[in-house]
Each structure stands twice: as C-alpha cells, then as structure tokens.
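A reminder from the course coordinator: this example appears on the midterm review sheet, so study it carefully.

Given structure:
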C-alpha cells in the first residue's frame, strides 16, 4: 500500500469541496437598490433610556463606576504593596536616618 502525504489529501479535499459548491456569484455585483438610510446615525437621533438596562441607563453607569473603582483599588493595592516591599528590603537605610541627627537648624 502506498503512503500518501497529508498535503495531497488536503489538496484533494479542497478541490472536491470547490467542485461540489458550484459557481460563485460575482463579488462586485451592485444591488439594484442602495439603502438610503445612513449607516452612522446622527447625534441624539436615538431615544432616552427607559429601563435601567438600556444604553445609557443607570445599570450601565453603575458598571462604569464599578470598573473605575476596581481599577483604582488594584492600583492602590499594588502601590501600597510595592512600598511595603521596598521598605522591608532596606531596613539599614531607615535605621541610619533615624540615628543621624538633622543638620538643619531649628527655626
């Protein structure tokens, strides 16, 4: 029995699918009627939110507040932990500053 390469089998499958699908319509055909509606709506063309889940409603604003608070909380936590880690690795610097008196005169 002869060993067939996977490339030949894939190529044979592609040709079989291409022949089975039939002719493909021309991609550059223009429809008879072009829609007259604008794709991008005008500003303030929509309606005001009626329910809490509508676009611009109170639930959407609550999600925005929660996301901003969450990101702020993570940034605060990372900053606090990095400062703690920095001071824990440099105890000699803190101790030397406490022992040495200030050279500035008191006013």
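Designed residues:
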């Amino acid at each position: 029995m002869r060993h067939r390469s996977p490339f030949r089998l894939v190529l044979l499958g592609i040709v079989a699918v291409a022949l089975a699908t039939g002719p493909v319509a021309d991609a550059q055909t223009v429809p008879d009627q072009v829609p007259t509606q604008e794709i991008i709506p005008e500003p303030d063309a929509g309606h005001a939110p009626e329910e809490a889940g509508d676009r611009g409603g109170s639930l959407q604003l609550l999600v925005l507040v929660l996301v901003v608070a969450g990101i702020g909380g993570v940034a605060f936590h990372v900053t606090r932990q990095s400062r703690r880690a920095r001071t824990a690795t440099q105890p000699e610097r803190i101790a030397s500053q406490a022992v040495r008196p200030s050279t500035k005169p008191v006013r």
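The longest helix spans residues 58-89. The chain has three helices and no strands.
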